[in-house]
Amino acid sequence: MVFSKWGSNQSTPFLFYMKITFVLIFLNLSFLCFSQDTTNLVPNWSFEQYSSCPVATYEITQAIPWFSANTMDPNFVHACANPGPFGVPSNAAGFQLAKNGGGYVGIEIYGGSNGIREYVESELIEPLIFGRKYCFEMYYNLGNYQMYSSNSFGVVFTVDSLFQNNITNINLIPNIPNTTSINNDTLGWTLMQGEYIAGGGEKFISIGNFYDNANTNYQLTGFGTNSLAYYFIDAIRLFDCTQPDTTVYTIEIFPNPNNGIFTVNYNLGEKPSGNFRIYDAIGKLINDEDLTQNNGTLNLNLLLSDGVYLWEVKDSDGNLLKGDKIVVVK
């Protein structure tokens, strides 16, 4: 139902006139320099692409390739739908200019005792690479009519789609939690950002509140009539921000591909020792070897089935020095 989340007041009260004035004064024009480039792994990152203009709820899939991660109905709004309840900047949830371009989405973070959650999900442009550091950022804004505000939402990266056939919270620990404080700002966009070290192969990004009600932080806004915490989301970015490694060390595996018999040549630079591990494609530890000296050769003869495996070398402090794939063919 539209008005259960969007607010039934479709008039233009004094609050909106005030808001229009303040938005024009304080609008952050940084998006003029915020152009999408090839480093951003999030497709349709500011919800400008659409299969058709939104005319109803349940239309998150119009903002291709985004979709709902459960059976609830995140909303897609865009300036192409003006005038109307799914337009931008004026829509049924309030008045808000887009952070970038003319579109954004809205999700329910907290719904009182009912525990209802909404999530938006998309497949990334390319899978994440094992051991690489990725930087994430997005902007969010509280809808006008909401009785609650919250900061209990975050980002989850998964190899497969997160979709679950339910309407309540998807119980996971966010890979990137929201660390900003709760605020009741319905005027400006708030930046959320964080970093993530990839496990390798993650292809999907999902955004929402992954906590149950007992672990959700929320507060009363003092002005809303809908018993919800409902947020707009826009300008999502994810990019590889791994710093160049200036440490002098070498790690070589040969042959690769191999039949399970191979050699690891290593030089750990200034570190006195380290560790070499092999994992299967789903992350199960297959082999663990201590590197007890600064440099040397490790000869391995392992009973491995045909397939692709992941290997990593960490130093004595637990820092990842290098990781990659090894292929076994017999």
Describe it for me?
The chain is mainly beta and 330 residues long. The protein is 5% helix and 36% strand. The chain has 2 helices and 21 strands. The protein has helices at 2-6, 14-26; strands at residues 67-68, 75-78, 90-91, 94-95, 103-110, 120-123, 133-142, 148-150, 154-158, 176-177, 190-197, 204-208, 218-220, 229-240, 250-254, 261-267, 274-279, 285-291, 295-301, 307-315, 320-328. The radius of gyration is 24 Å and the shape is elongated. Residues 8-37 have low confidence and may be disordered.
Order of helices and strands: HHEEEEEEEEEEEEEEEEEEEEE
Shape: elongated
**Main β sheet profile:** 5 strands, antiparallel
- Our estimate of the beta-strand percent is 35-45%
> Helical amount among residues, as a percent range?
under 10%
Strand order across the largest sheet? 1-6-12-9-10
The Rg value, from CA coordinates, equals 24 Å
Number of distinct helices? 2
Number of strands: 21
List the helices and strands and how they pair.
Blueprint: H1 2-6, H2 14-26, E1 67-68, E2 75-78, E3 90-91, E4 94-95, E5 103-110, E6 120-123, E7 133-142, E8 148-150, E9 154-158, E10 176-177, E11 190-197, E12 204-208, E13 218-220, E14 229-240, E15 250-254, E16 261-267, E17 274-279, E18 285-291, E19 295-301, E20 307-315, E21 320-328
Antiparallel strand pairs: 1-6, 2-5, 3-4, 5-14, 6-12, 7-11, 7-14, 8-13, 9-10, 9-12, 15-16, 16-19, 17-18, 17-20, 20-21
